[in-house]
Amino acid sequence: MTTAKAPVAPAPAVKKIPANSNKKLEFKANDHVVYPTHGVGKIMRIEEQEVAGLKLELFVITFDKDKMTLRVPVTKAKSVGMRKLSSPDTVATALNTLKGRARVKRTMWSRRAQEYEAKINSGDLVSIAEVVRDLHRASGQPEQSYSERQLYEAALARMAREVAAVEKIDETAAVKRVEGALLKKAA
């Protein structure tokens, strides 16, 4: 004597929750963030994409100045050095750094250029301020080489963008603020 079993309905598909989902996301849409090698960007949205068969949650960050969009996996944001904007105190420290004396090592330019490039790409505002201070030339000083000027302008732009975002001013005003701090050391 066999009894007929009723057909069993398949279990509803359960959306797999990433292991790190219990952690609150440090960044959210419309936040301004600093990505070390690109500077200040804005998180437009957080999206899910399938890459090589894996579902990834990604921050979609736009850098208007560079006309670039970057997608950073949520799980990698900290390890690549992505951070929130500096605090007003850090901005004040960076602007104070500009007033100090330039510390130029007496090593070959190629070595110093590498060190300056590393500081700029570190994403640390005070380190970037050191590069701006060290490469700044007052009107009475000798001309900069092309590569010195390129590094100076890159550091100045990176610093000005963050100062502008923190102080909620436009980038031109931020450049004037940074250059004003540089000129105060000369006076």
UniProtKB/TrEMBL annotation:
InterPro entries: CarD-like/TRCF_RID, CarD-like/TRCF_RID_sf, CarD-like_C, CarD-like_regulator, CarD_C. Residues 26-136 form the CarD-like/TRCF RNAP-interacting domain. It comes from Rhizomicrobium electricum. This is CarD family transcriptional regulator. It comes from the Bacteria. SMART domains: CarD_TRCF.
